[in-house]
Design brief:
This protein is α/β, with parallel strands linked by helices. Helix content is about 35%, strand content about 20%.
């Protein structure tokens, strides 16, 4: 008996660390296949497009006809702060272009990684998906606006099923700017400044673990999802700076300097993800 072809996933932003980890996981998946992007002038290869150009986006989806899209293309926090106008073009308007073209070409699911930064960092218990947003950066603002675009389009029938993942702190291969990786590479001459020990708390997950969660999350729209879905993705374990240093020192010496800083707390309530049988990433350590 011939098995039907596996549904195809197009990863926008596959060249990034999370995109690469997701692509590696999907290559061995029995459920999904990653979609090669074909150049009109040659064999299958990774291509570069201007994600803000709706005609290029439309042409890409017309040629590839994916069943699902993971939208990882976007600007980082530093880039957003440096150029807010371009941040709006890339992180908001481009999301709308992709969503509208997705509906046009029959894409069933649009998986959109958002950020825990939409909650801010001035709370004292794990945030639920219904927690009040506290936008404190250009990056968080663009992600919150993109979430609203996807929800509005789906309500209007102008966009595909959207699965929005509010991802908490990620570390691992290639993520050299994460606090975990900076601590791992610290040395006596270059100690890492910490904003307090017990007053700074984050929820850490390794990048390959987040990629596994995203693979499972692709299945959610096929399980009767009628509206956009927003989920927190993290370990659900609050880790203070003092605990983080203690964990990492079991691997190698960690070199730090401690600065005075305000209370800062960011951790995921993962109850909703558990309810939907989405795997919870392991906590660091």
């Amino acid at each position: 008996m011939i098995e039907p072809p596996k549904p195809r996933v197009l990863i926008l932003g596959a060249g990034g660390n999370l995109g690469a980890a997701l692509q590696d996981g999907l290559r061995s998946s029995r459920r999904w296949s990653t979609l090669p992007v074909f150049s009109p002038r040659g064999p299958a290869r990774r291509v570069r497009i201007d994600i803000t150009d709706e005609h290029e986006v439309d042409d890409l989806l017309r040629r590839t006809r994916p069943d699902a899209i993971v939208h990882l293309a976007g600007l980082t926090g530093i880039e957003c702060a440096q150029d807010p106008k371009r941040a709006a073009d890339v992180n908001v308007r481009a999301v709308e272009h992709v969503a509208r073209a997705s509906l046009k070409y029959g894409v069933k699911t649009l998986l959109f990684p958002s950020t825990s930064a939409v909650y801010g960092d001035q709370y004292d218990r794990p945030a639920t998906e219904g927690s009040k947003l506290d936008i404190r950066s250009s990056y968080a603002e663009t992600k919150a606006r993109a979430e609203d675009v996807l929800k509005d389009l789906q309500r209007e029938g102008a966009g595909p099923h959207a699965v929005i993942l509010r991802i908490f702190n990620v570390y691992g291969t290639g993520l050299t700017e994460s606090l975990v990786e900076r601590l791992r590479s610290s040395d006596p001459a270059n100690p890492v400044p910490l904003r307090g020990l017990e007053t700074f708390t984050r929820d850490y997950s390794e990048v390959s673990e987040i990629a596994k969660v995203m693979e499972i999350a692709l299945e959610l729209s096929g399980s009767g999802l009628q509206h956009s879905l927003t989920l927190n993705i993290g370990s659900g374990v609050p880790t203070t700076n003092s605990r983080l240093v203690e964990i990492l020192q079991h691997e190698n010496p960690v070199h730090t300097s401690v600065l005075a800083g305000p209370w800062s707390y960011s951790c995921a309530d993962v109850t909703a993800a558990r309810r939907l049988a989405v795997p919870i990433p392991r906590a660091i350590g």
